Amino acid sequence: MSPIIESADVVVIGGGPGGSTTATLLAKRGHRVVLLEKETFPRYQIGESLLPSTVHGIGRMLGVTEELEKAAFTVKRGGSFRWGTNPVPWNFLFAVAPELSGPTSTAYQVERMKFDDILLRNAARTGVDVRENSPVTEVVSDDERVRGVRYTDPDGAEHEIRATFVVDASGNRSRVHQNVGGERLYSDFFQNIALFGYFTGGKRLPAPDSGNILCAAFDEGWIWYIPLSDELTSVGVVIAREHAAKLQGDQEQAMRGFLDRCEIVKDMLADATRVTEGVYGEIRTRKDYSYTNSTFHRPGMVLVGDAACFIDPVFSTGVHLATYAGLLAARSINTVLAGESTEERVFAEFEGRYRREYRVFYEFLSAFYDMQSNEESYFWKARKVTNFNATDLEAFVSLVGGVHSGEQAFTNADQLVGGFRESSGALADAVERTGAMDTETGDKMHHLFGTPVVREVMAEMNNVQVRGVLGEQARELPLLEDGLVPSADGLAWTEAK
Ligand code: FAD
Description:
Strands 1, 2, 7, 8, 9, 10, 19 and 20 form an eight-stranded mixed β-sheet that branches. Strands 4, 5, 12, 13, 14, 15, 16 and 17 form an eight-stranded mixed β-sheet that branches. The chain has a three-stranded antiparallel β-sheet with strand order 11-18-21, with no helix packed on it. Helix content is 35%, strand content 23%. It folds into three domains: 4-72 and 110-187 and 290-351, FAD/NAD(P)-binding domain (3-Layer(bba) Sandwich), CATH 3.50.50; 192-287, 2-Layer Sandwich (D-Amino Acid Oxidase, Chain A, domain 2), CATH 3.30.9; 373-476, no CATH class. Helix 7 (318-337) packs antiparallel against helix 8 (343-368) and helix 8 packs antiparallel against helix 9 (375-386). It is α+β, with helices and mostly antiparallel strands and 497 residues long. It is built from 14 helices and 23 strands. A hairpin with a 7-residue loop joins strand 4 and strand 5. Residues 13-19, 36-39, 43, 45-50, 135-136, 169-172, 174, 176, 194, 236, 286, 289, 305-306, 310, 313, 316, 318-320, 322 line the site of flavin-adenine dinucleotide. Flavin-adenine dinucleotide is lined by residues 13-19, 36-39, 43, 45-50, 135-136, 169-172, 174, 176, 194, 236, 286, 289, 305-306, 310, 313, 316, 318-320, 322. Belongs to the flavin-dependent halogenase family. Bacterial tryptophan halogenase subfamily. One of its GO terms (molecular function) is monooxygenase activity. This is FAD-binding protein.
């Protein structure tokens, strides 16, 4: 039987954070967007620890800030690490970075079932035609470009939607990405396997860091410990592929063995019980998740989120990269549909910015895996890869806060106008307010905040962001050579003047 034919401006495949972000930001410009999702939401997904850029930057652009607040997710002020040669756990706080100061200096730990559902329902409210239980089975193309998709509806009927653009945000395990051509290049460095489950009754870090993600290294890898609520904790073990044999057989036993070898996590879980029923009742494994596609775009089609690339769970960059890519893709498509630039030009901007963000995190995370180093060398590496003319510590926190891209949308410009305009005078106060690090590095950081270079960097960042709040002169500078800049509403690209 021939398929039912329909048309749209854009078809988005996948209703995860990448797909919902892209679809919503396209619908805000009035385009006809159909989002096809193979599951019925809410559905399970891993990737629960978020960065401030997603919560406050993208969340604000999507219009879900209040809904996220109402969901009462665990507030995450930063991360706690038992890593490197230092046996004492150390913290970083998002609030140390000047761009992140103020009320936007936190993120959330989320149950992805709830978080992704909020984003998808919001997309529908914004005007996206969301169709669940509707797997895409084929991408329709000719020699020139991608022309649409075929999918099966919940009653089993075949549909074909013809569209000017197809966005593949179908995640890690779908094969749809193959339609852009190129290859999926797996990382030589990150070849890890994750084994994860859920516990009730686990301990919490002392306040005010009780919402932090705890990452603890042990001989064969590291463990994440994410407080999802007062009761529920997500616990995952990440090990190098050469230890895969240890996962054969009983998964529960394998997991218990790893957890017992990591003193700090063993102690946190001393009175805890593993959840064995419902959606959190399984022990799951994931592997082969660190890759990048050799191309992210072909005429008529673009890859967003895990469909394009992912690095590694450490430092919680997955949802940030997926939603950042969604923003970049929506700007690119909005610009072409408005007839304001060519597909070639806007997708060069898309791919350039996206790869830049990916590359910086990739380099930094590679350095982080050098467990023989102490934390000083991570700071140093962060500085090196970001090319920031900033102190090591600021560069480090900016990077792990997801604001390294320089996107104004990710930072709290209003707050900066009010809070840090007088940056030189505010430096010492900022240290007092944030509380800084609660380890022996705290003193060192206090000293760093007092240096002239930090003052300059803070002042310049403030200037850029204040201009953003004030409109016209607020235009962002291009990030790439001869690159484009965001339009005034942030939903498209425009030539830099
Ligand atoms: P997804 O969230 O995977 O969404 C894709 C959607 O597409 C799914 O809903 C799927 O059902 C749908 N789909 C698939 N095929 C089709 C089809 N043919 N038709 C229609 N729909 C389809 N990230 C973090 O930010 N923080 C973390 O703490 C973190 N921890 C992680 C731990 C591990 C072990 C791993 C492997 C990853 C982790 N991540 C983390 C990464 C995070 O899971 C992903 O980066 C994120 O989910 C990507 O979002 P997405 O929208 O691209 O894809």
